[in-house]
């Protein structure tokens, strides 16, 4: 490992000539005499006082240095600025464009412009930094992630140990390999350590014995990437007798709930599968082959579920598994029944009947095989301690190289890169488990929860948007419904994730991601944001920090009544921007939204950070290039409503904000 | 849940704060009549209902919105008469509602209704001899007849107004007839009346008087019929005939009609519909009312224009007083070749007229006329260099969505959804007294979105306009089709001939007619329209874009070849095209301009022809307008461009209506003004010299390309050209195309971007960061389409349209002068670049 690290450093030294091929910049961090590196999608950070900047570094003063290239379409004049506590310096093409607290202009070359940004936080208080730029063609905005690139070799070592850390937590290694010194109590430190595994209560009510056996025998055959390891040897054709017994025992827990499959609902369910975005994370149940987009297969669902149980599960997937990655769509009973009908009608995989098995022996296996270590959080002695495993540098047992027999150890179907990531993590002191950096949590979980399956992110279209043909087929098969104006439709764009941390008030986004009851902001879409309750708060905080924002917003001054009055007019059709044409305002419907239904303005001040609202109003296409929101402001910051507030866009938009605040505080 | 309840309360408050603001459409005085499509009192339309439904209705207002007579011009029938209010003002041009049309107000007392179909009949059968749309074939077509009934039976000719009276003029067979619907107060009771006068020929036939459908007693005897009213004759209407033999009253089937036999010229007669006791009445002299009445809009509105140069001074003062003045911006403003002057529209007027400019044109003395979406036409005087005093006078009212206006030989032609109307001021009081029906052959259905747009005139005096498809509420798919949905029309100079000359357009808010008769149209993104485009019609009958509106079987499987596609961020909602016909407007004579309604912007269109195939792109002028500009005209007096537009649907416009003038300041202009694509690269011509360092620097140019997917979806994402029609994530977006080198010509007016191996592509965006010789910025982007890639030694022909001199061309098919010849372009390129012109200088 030492050698590998050395080679890694050599690569780093040579990075100046290697290709900056990956999105984001390399962020090198130093604290307490130690260093670390990770990929950062933005030139921004927020570290509250007393928190670490990296899980691999101690608390205390730190230095941050972003390196990589800024890509410009053509030679262009831009000006840099920053919002910060502490001091910073930014050089581009060797020219200083920001120093201390003052920015300047530069002509960027067409193509790659090497960029170095160094930031030193203040000695006390929060560390906050956001690098911004502006040009004639666009107003001040954060430097977008889409124009930043770095050399991945620079960050490989830092990212490998992070991936190892994540795997260690999410595969729940410490449930078997106990180490009270290295691993904190659940609920402390790294949030993923608090993830649970499904409760094994009354499985016989819900699942078939045949599936339980098949799953125990080889979970990854049905769910690639399953966190559940293969515990027993053999395969389904020749199952391990322990697996047979265990399945028999689990199936004996509770009587099957049964339930009918209403095949007539199947095609309606199929349309829901397309319209709610199930299809973005799952291949269609009739598909047996693996998917390049890592969608989770469903071919086995009919062989797995009791129909009534599936309906219940779809309505609350987290009921018996708090940390499940399957989100809660808050389906009505009718929708759940339709989806269930679709899944159970279309899934064609037939599993062989399970041999009878010995229930009592199975019960014993539940303990002996270590199931309860994860599924009940009750560690059974007999597994090597974490300290013991580290003596081998994680080359044996669970982390045996791919293709090498696992012996008695469970098989997590780890890829070679996952194994090397775990081994890289093994080289650390594990102190990183006791802390966490919300920005990194958000980065990890955006990947793990497949947020980008539905949402555009950093210029990358969503998986869902690429499945247009499949969605159309599913919709076409469903019974025709007359579509009236104002009915939700399936193909509107979903909001991008790119600016989420800068855009939404953290308390609102946490509530929204958690699925707390509220009016649906994009009521015109059939799609609905499903709830990821377990992850919501961390995602919300982490995204704010990623964008260099605190989760505590400055208190706004009292509403300026005079401005608010002007704002009323500016919202309207006469003498205003006619915002109310597309946006509802409370119960007042939009006057003529046609193809551009928009969010209810009455919710704007509770949803949006004021700073983002302004940026959006001034240059909406800089945030969402294909938005239907008009741009009202010219490059001099003027609107065509010259008779109000001297035509100054900034003041006019402030007036609208003040008006919207009065609608809020009226409660 | 508590959260939701709270929100409703909040919302109520905010709704209150805005509710008083609008409803200008309720306050507006529409004049003596209003044209629209009408529903009956049951909310039914011509597609599904009987009675007072009309596609081309004219609702005559009686008293202060106290009663209404509804005349349907396409069936030449009085469709109904009621008291209890005029009409319910509902629909897209009123409250913005997507679907309903005006109809009798709630609680209206219906005196009579006549079922749709001809209002006159030779034999009393009232048989509808119109052919169903598409000959009755195809489930997508409406299953009711549309458009005017055969002219030989009866033909609407127009109307006269006199005070509040409206006199309809039409022919029945060979006879000319005047008819006036009124609400009269006779012996204290409301009586709905119809007065007729034969002004030429001899009138023979039956006129439809009332629908006998439904409950009620019919009794056609003693010169009187009683219709409707239920079992006890409660609310029944007595129909009485005056001035001709009442024996002609005929109840047949479901129709009460009046048989007229050999009624001579000069005969006046009347039909009354009453609900009270016996009445007596006079028969008015209608001819006397056709010579112009007293002026009704006597109050004119004076406004002072705002010169762009004054605005510039203000801006400069502000910029110069800044802490660190932006020298580039100051220079740019000081050197601006074009400024935007504002001609304030009579926004505040005593008639509460909602001024949303839908069409405009200028008279030969530079008076300006505009039409509005709400149906007005106004004329302004004082349009001079200073704009110090512009006087607006209301000229006409009641047009069915005035979204196009054209002045031909100093006569105003205005386009409504129902017809082209010629407006004539008979008594010289500055107000139209005669609304002559110039041509009403276009079909109308009740769909809210089937706007007719623009009105253009070619050098021969022929007229052109557009009609969109019947887009469903919500924006996707179509309502029942007529034969004319989604088409371009040509109407002969005398109004007698109506032709469909292009099909398959969706929501085309604007077209253009070139000096040589070039016919162009824009269109709006939506079903089958991936993004906006500009199309030049190659020949009459061409299919353009939307197969559902092609009126062809089978439907086309690929779109027409467009001059260019326009990216959504550049234009999201098109306006019209205007050709530069003025030598006083910089160096752009013969070029096409394109207006964007959605972005309130003006573009220069660069065009070439490669073996006859048009291709090109757009460059934005650095100008902003206060409304969604969509119509443009060059003044023959001052040679400047006048543009007008409105804020009606999604746009960044802030004014309901605007007229502005784009004035050339005489300062040098440097902007791209020609574009040629060959397999060696792209040649961009500039109207002025570039600053050498920036112009010759490869780093100042970038090229990105993408295609779109032509499908029944609403719009299309950008698709990488290498990806075919895949919508996969990896295939969405644009592709950057490497530019190998850049060469600036010796006169610094031509740039050659060496891009070997260019291929046809729907969208090619040339991004530039170059400066003009004086240091000012040059528009930084050209968005163009490559249809054909000719070899480097055979580039396309630069396209300008210059007015033909002493030629007798007849329409757009024989352009007399189409720019400069291919050989001369090639010569000029060679002259500028020497042997480098083809981009292969390394080989030579």
Strand order of the largest sheet of chain B: 12-13-14-17-10-9-8-7-27-26-25-24
Give the overall average pLDDT of chain A.
92
CATH class of the largest domain in chain A: Mainly Alpha
CATH architecture of the largest domain in chain A: Orthogonal Bundle
Oligomer: heterodimer
Q: In CATH terms, what is the fold-level topology of the largest domain in chain A? A: Cytochrome Bc1 Complex, Chain D, domain 2
Radius of gyration of chain A: 27 Å
Helix proportion of chain B? under 10%
Principal-axis shape of chain A equals globular
Q: Biggest interface and which pair forms it? A: A-B, 72 and 77 residues
Number of domains of chain A: 5
CATH topology (fold) name of the largest domain in chain B: Neuraminidase
Account of the 3D structure:
The complex is a heterodimer of chains A (667) and B (844). By secondary structure, chain A is of the alpha+beta class. Chain A has 5 domains: 15-150, Toxin - Anthrax Protective Antigen,domain 1 (Toxin - Anthrax Protective Antigen, domain 1, Alpha-Beta Complex), CATH 3.90.182; 159-196 and 377-434, no CATH class; 203-346, Cytochrome Bc1 Complex, Chain D, domain 2 (Orthogonal Bundle); 446-546, no CATH class; 561-665, Cytochrome Bc1 Complex, Chain D, domain 2. Chain A is built from 26 helices and 16 strands. In chain A, strands 1, 2, 3, 5, 7, 8, 9, 11 and 14 form a 9-stranded antiparallel beta sheet that branches. In chain A, strands 4, 6, 10, 12 and 13 form a 5-stranded antiparallel beta sheet that branches. A two-stranded antiparallel sheet of chain A has the order 15-16. In chain A, a hairpin with a 2-residue loop joins strand 2 (25-31) and strand 3 (34-40). In chain A, helix 4 packs across helix 5 and helix 24 crosses helix 26. Chain A is globular, with a radius of gyration of 27 Å. Mean pLDDT of chain A is 92; it is low at 1-17. Chain B is mainly beta and 844 residues long. Chain B folds into 3 domains: 24-289; 344-596 and 621-656, TolB, C-terminal domain (Neuraminidase); 672-843, Immunoglobulin-like, CATH 2.60.40. Helices cover 7% and strands 36% of the residues of chain B. In chain B, strand 30 and strand 31 (498-503) form a beta hairpin. In chain B, helix 3 runs antiparallel to helix 4. Chain B is elongated. The N and C termini of chain B lie far apart (78 Å). Classes of the chains: A alpha+beta (667), B mainly beta (844). The interface between A and B is large, with 72 and 77 residues.
